[in-house]
Amino acid sequence: MLSGCSNINHEAEEEGGSQQTDISPQDAQIQNPEDMFTVQKRTVLMAATVILIVILVLLGGVVITACRLMEVIDQLNTDVHKEFPSLSRKEGIVPEEVWRWIVAAKADMTLNPQSAHYLLKVSSDNKSLYQASLSSPPRVPTNETYLLCSCVSSKNLLNTRAYFALKVTQRVPWTLGLRTESFNADRSPDTDPNAGIWTIASAEGKIIINDGKATPTLHVTPAMLGLYLDYARGQVSFYDSVVKRHLHTYLTTFKEKLRFYAAVQVGQLETQDMLISFV
Ligand SMILES: *[C@@H]1O[C@H](CO)[C@@H](O)[C@H](O)[C@H]1NC(C)=O
Ligand SMILES: *[C@@H]1O[C@H](CO)[C@@H](O)[C@H](O)[C@H]1NC(C)=O
């Protein structure tokens, strides 16, 4: 801008200088038509330069304003995201953007057929759990097989943010959630978070919180359950994933990787119904 201004002054001085010579304007026209043409050309060039500079300055202003706006929007987004973890464990229906943020952490879960108690059977795609047919041949247990507890674990070992949904039976009682890798339900009850297991249960169509006191809730057992882990924050949350309602959150500090865990009460009646199934 400054150099543009000094150029203008410089040009103006030159023009003034040529007018101070003794040659009459007529002579000038006759003798130096090229000079006149040059002066006009310079004026046009100068005007064009000034216009260009003005446009550049305006454009610069627009770019700077846009950049500032982006920064402000970025800041707003960060602030909103900061709220997401606390909103993810608030009572009631989860806000839509928070739900999208949770579901974006979707983990592809599979059950470990080797872990299943002999009364339970994992589907061939390792996604669903059924009652084993009493006529099916006995399986040889491995060191991962539940021998006493009618339980199953996931193959997945989790230690990040992870979300998954599963269909759950409303017909028979179950307990499910996450357990540490070393927790063994054959030896310890699955209802005490201090032992390294964070679960909820379903009994008589209602959800119970296994916080060590088996706290009953008014929540009806949903057809589809959402489970969300934020390992770094020590958070395990359960949702009715049909209506996106928060059911319960455990807050703790994890020291071990976690597996999905489910115990289902079977044996009284033979049934072909799906008990739980990852979706
Ligand atoms: C299911 O698990 C078994 C045992 O780990 C494995 O051999 C099989 O490939 C798995 N099936 C699928 C479809 O992942
Ligand atoms: C089972 O045995 C395998 C290999 O022997 C071992 O890697 C694994 O940690 C064992 N699992 C459990 C639950 O003890």
From TrEMBL:
Q: Does the keyword Cytoplasm apply?
A: no
Annotated membrane-spanning segments are 44-66
Q: Which organism is it from?
A: Hemibagrus wyckioides
Per its record, how is this protein called by name?
B30.2/SPRY domain-containing protein
Q: Where is the composition biased (Polar residues)?
A: 17-26
Which InterPro entries does the record associate with it? B30.2/SPRY, B30.2/SPRY_sf, Butyrophylin_SPRY, ConA-like_dom_sf, SPRY_dom, TRIM/RBCC
Sequence ranges assigned to domain B30.2/SPRY in this UniProt record: 89-279
What high-level taxonomic lineage is stated for the organism? Eukaryota, Metazoa, Chordata, Craniata, Vertebrata
Please give the residue ranges the record annotates as the region Disordered: 1-26
- The organism's superkingdom is given as Eukaryota
PANTHER family referenced in this protein's UniProt entry, alphabetically: E3 UBIQUITIN-PROTEIN LIGASE TRIM (PTHR24103)
Short name of one Pfam family for this protein? SPRY
UniProt keyword annotations, A-Z: Membrane, Transmembrane, Transmembrane helix
